[in-house]
Amino acid sequence: MSFFEDRRLLVKIAHMYYEEGATQSQIADEIGVSRSLISKYLSKARELGIVEIIIHDDTIHPFRQLEGKIERLYGLREVVCVPNLGNESSKARVGAAAGKYLLRVIRDGQTIGVSSGTTIHEMVEAISTNQQFPTVTFVPLVGGMGNERVDIHANHIAATFAERMQAQYKLLHAPVVVDSKEAKEIFMRQTSIQNIFSLGTKANIAIVGIGGTPEHSTMVKSYLGQEHQEYFDQSDVVGDICYNFINEHGQASNVSWNEKVIALEVEKLKDIPLVVGVACGVEKVKAIKASLEGKLIDVLVTDEQTAKALLEEA
Question: pLDDT tens across 55-66, in order?
Fold first, then answer.
């Protein structure tokens, strides 16, 4: 019988290492074998079920299983889930978590594209770091002028990110939406606007909000007024991403809004290596699901309630 089949020896080594706190070198000296063999014995003990390593993360990280299910279901790089404490509180927590994620993955010299919205605003408000990023550039992915709150515009968000992180930023001098398809074409031919969208398309990371169905959209109410519901009655819209309205498959919906909006196109969003979707709220579940189905985002930052509803919707 080989040493590897001697369960008594495996149990002894496991006890010494895991319970008595002996080092592998100390165990090797006592047993009379090399340190490399002790490492193999410990691996064999785990393989045979003599040792089981259990990570007690329920209190430290209670949403790991929930995150893992969504990651596997949609092939995501990562899901970050926070506790649900009501709409505005959840937005603030989701924003803060997204800020921490960005600080973890950002690298010198990168270009970071940003959309707009209340949750992205919460994210930039929560950013806190002593590190400086002088070679990082923030760029808007959507138009930055209109009737909405100025603090949730992409231009303001890009500039505030840059200020708080000691980085560079660009501004997109264009409205969110124009009066016609022809007007959009004129805007998009402007060199300054072309340059911003060209830079946005080449971004290393995109931070984007995900909007819910039109009746819940501040953007829609702001630009379409009381007629907004009638505007979408016969449409397949489930929500929006970067101000592009999308259907349940994550494709751009066939609505005239998309012909007039000044924003990075849905298909071009897919070309960005890392797209982080930041959103919460049960009214956004269908839009988030569509974004995942369409492979528009690689990382999702959300809250517990939204995550559970997303799994129920699957």
Answer: 655 555 678 889
